[in-house]
Amino acid sequence: MVFVTDARPTEPTGRQSADPDHPQELRRIAERIVTEAAEHLRGLPRPWDDAGAGPAGGVATKSTPTDVVTESDHTLENLVRERLAQLRPGDSVVGEEHGGSAGSSRTLWVVDPIDGTVNFLYGLPWYAVSLAAVRDGESVAGAVAEPATGRLWSAAVGAGATCDGRPLRVSGASELSLSLLGTGFSYRAERRVRQAAMVAGMLPEVRDVRRTGSAALDLCAVAAGWLDAYLEHGCSWWDWAAAALIATEAGAVVRTPGPTGSVPPDDGLGADALLAATPAIAADLMALAREHGAANV
């Protein structure tokens, strides 16, 4: 499947565009804002030096020394919040860098200004800007912009998912042993050990494993059929709020943690497991993950 890289937002459709709270209208707002943010990011100074000696200034750490945040993360989240205040005054916003709460507004926006900050820090292209509109704890619209390629991924509940305006559909994978699995790892060393042990046990039972460093782009890759499945523990709400909806609307079986840290029903995968898979392999993938200690990761 090949996509062009010019971002083409969803076209308005009559009655839906007349309702400012319709998921398709919220989708178009998300598309507009993440596209603007991605364009702005491309114009910001790079956080790595030109001599190839590694990251330069404008970088701080959060939960661990490996969990980084750049000045660009803060700049982009501020931009997104300003645009939402203009386009959706009265709505609440929750962001990775500046927090927030649901408040009393009908619609809550969840933003990750740069998902894949370590990749961005080192000059790798796999990072994204993510924005989702949420109602009653469920994402109803969302968009993910991929600054390095210009791709624009989006979805609205019940209206399907697209990349650059082209409909998305998950792969037709039907055998777990021939399936490509995406994953990721925690910033905490002790948890990485458990994650690595789980993946090591699963690796002989799948075609191969990929780790890109962006949960949002991994979920979009499942939606596009570029990955057959994705499994990671420890992702935050803003990592997946938009992209999990995109994968769902593309036909994936999606399992998320509770949106604000609540624990989903015990299914043996662990409370904070994030999973998306093409339907024919989903049950087998979950069983394999349980067999190799997913519940204890």
Describe it:
InterPro entries: IMPase, Inositol_monoP_metal-BS, Inositol_monophosphatase-like, Inositol_monophosphatase_CS. Belongs to the inositol monophosphatase superfamily. It catalyses: a myo-inositol phosphate + H2O = myo-inositol + phosphate. This protein is α+β, with helices and mostly antiparallel strands and 297 residues long. It has two domains: 14-167, 2-Layer Sandwich (Fructose-1,6-Bisphosphatase, Chain A, domain 1), CATH 3.30.540; 176-296, D-Maltodextrin-Binding Protein, domain 2. 32% of the residues lie in helices and 22% in strands. It has nine helices and 14 strands. The strands form three sheets. A seven-stranded mixed beta sheet has the order 3-4-5-6-7-8-9, sandwiched between helices. Helix 2 packs antiparallel against helix 3 (71-87). The longest helix is centred in the N-terminal third of the chain and has 20 residues, at 23-42. The model is unreliable at 1-7, 12-16 and 49-57 (pLDDT under 50).
- Tell me the strand percentage band: 15-25%
Number of strands: 14
Terminal-residue CA separation = 34 Å
Radius of gyration: 18 Å
Q: What form results from the Cα inertia axes?
A: globular
CATH 2nd-level architecture of the largest domain? 2-Layer Sandwich
Structural class: alpha+beta
Question: What is the top-level CATH class of the largest domain?
Answer: Alpha Beta
Q: Please name the CATH topology of the largest domain.
A: Fructose-1,6-Bisphosphatase, Chain A, domain 1
CATH superfamily heading of the largest domain: Fructose-1,6-Bisphosphatase, subunit A, domain 1
Written as H for each helix and E for each strand, in order along the chain, the element string is: HHEEHEEHEEEEEEHEHEHHEEH
Counted by DSSP, the helix tally is: 9
Strand order of the largest sheet: 3-4-5-6-7-8-9
